[in-house]
């Protein structure tokens, strides 16, 4: 656990002057009483690729991030399981005003880079650029100890999938829409977010309100 915290602290120190005009976003405490039953959320779950341009409320954004990969126990463990509790997943929120890192310990969004980088998430699927927030799920393979390189890739992909499923269930149960995606402009995103070679963008989930 100390190693994970140390890595995250180092990552936060890497925030560049590209974000100098952005402010951290202090998130609300998660509302754990909201949403439909799990069976209803599963029944309603579906993918949408067109979104209203309306921004998420602060409460919706706060609850979304906590549901995706927030801390749900005093020992620092997360809402999403990871292999051997290596907590390899980092979550980034890409929004119109800029890109942010989700600091689960502080339950806060830390600014990384100014500007609208949602088209890098959308790639050729232009419609998803309208989603007010795109969550980028990154696995840092260096956090896997005692696992060979192929095993690291499998575990990273599995852990990313669990976070994506959390996002989908939250969206389905709380009136939002999303779609899980693997296509994106990976090299450009890695540059914008200052990701290391071991930090691999695995999946993304554009999230918003339904356009219908």
List keywords for this structure.
212 residues, alpha+beta, NADH Oxidase, seven-stranded antiparallel sheet, 7 strands
How does this structure look, described?
With 212 residues, the protein is of the alpha+beta class. The protein has a single domain (2-208), classed as NADH Oxidase. Helix content is 32%, strand content 20%. The chain has six helices and seven strands, in the order αβααβββαβαβαβ. The protein has helices spanning 2-13, 38-44, 58-69, 118-122, 149-173, 186-192; strands at residues 25-26, 89-95, 98-103, 108-114, 133-140, 177-178, 199-208. Strands 1-4-3-2-5-7-6 form a seven-stranded antiparallel sheet, sandwiched between helices. Strand 3 and strand 4 form a beta hairpin. The longest helix is centred in the C-terminal third of the chain and has 25 residues, at 149-173. The model has no long low-confidence stretch (mean pLDDT 93).
What is this structure's SSE topology?
Blueprint: H1 2-13, E1 25-26, H2 38-44, H3 58-69, E2 89-95, E3 98-103, E4 108-114, H4 118-122, E5 133-140, H5 149-173, E6 177-178, H6 186-192, E7 199-208
Antiparallel strand pairs: 1-4, 2-3, 2-5, 3-4, 5-7, 6-7
Helix pairs in contact: 2-5, 3-5
What's the total helix number? 6
Unreliable parts: none
Strand content: 15-25%
Radius of gyration: 16 Å
The fold-level CATH name is NADH Oxidase
- Overall residue-averaged pLDDT value: 93
Helical/strand content category: alpha+beta
What's a concise summary of this model?
The chain is of the alpha+beta class.
């Amino acid at each position: 656990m100390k190693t994970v915290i140390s890595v995250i602290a180092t990552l936060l120190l890497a925030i560049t002057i590209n974000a100098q005009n952005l402010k951290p976003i202090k998130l609300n405490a998660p509302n754990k009483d909201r949403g439909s039953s799990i069976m209803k959320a599963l029944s309603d779950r579906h993918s949408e690729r067109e979104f209203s341009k309306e921004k998420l409320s602060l409460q919706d954004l706060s609850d979304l991030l906590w549901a995706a990969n927030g801390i749900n126990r005093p020992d620092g463990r997360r809402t999403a399981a990871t292999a051997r509790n290596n907590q390899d997943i980092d979550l980034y929120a890409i929004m119109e005003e800029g890109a942010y890192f989700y600091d689960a310990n502080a339950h806060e969004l830390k600014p990384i880079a100014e500007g609208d980088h949602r088209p890098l998430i959308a790639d050729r699927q232009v419609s998803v650029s309208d989603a007010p927030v795109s969550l980028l799920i990154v696995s840092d393979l260096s956090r896997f100890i005692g696992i060979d390189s192929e095993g690291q890739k499998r575990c990273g992909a599995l852990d990313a999938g669990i976070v994506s499923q959390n996002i989908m269930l939250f969206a389905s149960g709380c009136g939002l829409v999303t779609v899980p995606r693997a296509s994106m402009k990976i090299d450009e995103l890695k540059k914008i977010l200052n990701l290391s070679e071991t930090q691999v963008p695995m999946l993304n989930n554009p999230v918003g309100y339904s356009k219908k």
